[in-house]
Amino acid sequence: MPSNAESAAFRSALEVIRAVEPRVADAIGAELADQRESLKLIASENYASPATLLAMGNWFSDKYAEGTVGRRFYAGCQNVDTVEALAAEHARELFGATYAYVQPHSGIDANLVAFWAILADRVESPALARAQARHVNDLTEQDWFALRRELGDQRMLGMSLDAGGHLTHGFRPNISGKMFDQRSYGTDPATGLVDYDKVAEAAREFRPLVLVAGYSAYPRKVNFRIMREIADSVGATFMVDMAHFAGLVAGKVFTGDFDPVPHAHIVTTTTHKSLRGPRGGMVLCGPELADQVDRGCPMVLGGPLPHVMAAKAVALAEARRPDFAGYARRIVDNAQALADGLLRRGATLVTGGTDNHLVLIDVTGYGLTGRQAEQALLDSGIVTNRNAVPQDANGAWYTSGIRIGTPALTTRGLGTAEMDGTAELIHTVLSQTSAGANPDGTASKAKYVLDPALADKVSRQAGELLAGFPLYPNVDLG
Ligand code: PLP
């Protein structure tokens, strides 16, 4: 692709937008400049390709397309059918899945689709059969009331939040925690690793309808074969939320027992994290759940976003190219180099390292809360996010951890040598930051003291590290 084609495409788009609302055009340009300048270590972010970005800005945005490919509630969806079918085909081929549903607007939406599909399959369908009804509208008031109670009386077992689980895996502040009676499994306090015997014990005691695996902040692999055996032993449906590590599955870094697709009944994911697509979600499953999953819209989803499905098709086509496997491998190599660099400099890491795309630093070793560390790093041009660590004494708001991930910097082209430089910058900031005090002299969990000159110096060094790896090198907005 000649470099001027990408520049021309984005320049023209901005020109058209500027003619209507220049402040939006300015904000878009400023966002690119900010992304170019910051050392982005947010584990859940990436940089989508120009083709993926451009696939979203077009006439597909104007279409209503409720229904599924070939079975729409609106006329005139033939082109939407084309892109939805393409995205689904790429997803099936990429992940070796029997069925792919590419309509969810995000990871949370994909999880909701999966939960309702499981409830429909395991609770609603049997209730309809018992009542000899074909449809919920055919149930008597009494049977409908009984079914609603039964739907609300199901159990879910998932990873605890402080071990790295996600809020949507049955926690009370989320709708999933209001739908399900939830219990969670943690990690071994000594090793920080999932203890499968403990998961099996919890499953035996709790007898969940759904066993969930998947995480936002667990820096290790999960053995999905063992988790499936546990689910089978108690008759649970096994669901994996691979939102964070889908790129590592796509790139065949996670294979065999560590690839969720052959082991889970249903797999959900985002498309924008390590998979490097547009913001969105997806559900993969076998034929048993496919019909229920297809009802995602309008069951829990608003109308499909055909422009985003077009971008999903583009990004998934990219992920099927041979070079994506190299990218996925480099994500993990970089995370391990970052972890090694931090460990060598004396940092404490949850589980002592990583075998995926993320590293969790326990910043209490630096005398800081996660919030203080996050802000001090941000002052120094390093974008991360605070995160709870197992048995976190500082709670979910201040936390004791910093989560860092390598998908974005790896897309930019940084390698293991630069990861050591990154570890040096992080360690410098954290070791030179101290906790601040409240007006009454007590230790603050939010205030911190960092010499602004040091923050500036690290910011400049971060800029120098990035300078050799231009972001969107073929895009010049002039
Ligand atoms: N599932 C997991 C494991 C996640 O980490 C996240 C996002 O952080 C989500 C689901 C939600 O994804 P989204 O923000 O696209 O709804």
From TrEMBL:
The record marks 272 as: Plays an important role in substrate specificity. The keyword Transferase applies. Homodimer. Catalyzes the reversible interconversion of serine and glycine with tetrahydrofolate (THF) serving as the one-carbon carrier. This reaction serves as the major source of one-carbon groups required for the biosynthesis of purines, thymidylate, methionine, and other important biomolecules. Also exhibits THF-independent aldolase activity toward beta-hydroxyamino acids, producing glycine and aldehydes, via a retro-aldol mechanism. The modification N6-(pyridoxal phosphate)lysine is found at residue 273. InterPro entries: PyrdxlP-dep_Trfase (IPR015424), PyrdxlP-dep_Trfase_major (IPR015421), PyrdxlP-dep_Trfase_small (IPR015422), Ser_HO-MeTrfase (IPR001085), Ser_HO-MeTrfase-like (IPR049943), Ser_HO-MeTrfase_PLP_BS (IPR019798), SHMT-like_dom (IPR039429). Its cofactor is pyridoxal 5'-phosphate. Belongs to the SHMT family. (6S)-5,6,7,8-tetrahydrofolate binds at residues 161, 165-167. Keywords: Amino-acid biosynthesis, Cytoplasm, Methyltransferase, One-carbon metabolism, Pyridoxal phosphate, Transferase. Its EC number is 2.1.2.1. This is Serine hydroxymethyltransferase. It catalyses: (6R)-5,10-methylene-5,6,7,8-tetrahydrofolate + glycine + H2O = (6S)-5,6,7,8-tetrahydrofolate + L-serine. One of its GO terms (cellular component) is cytosol. It is found in: Cytoplasm. The gene is glyA. One of its GO terms (biological process) is tetrahydrofolate interconversion. The keyword ATP-binding does not apply.
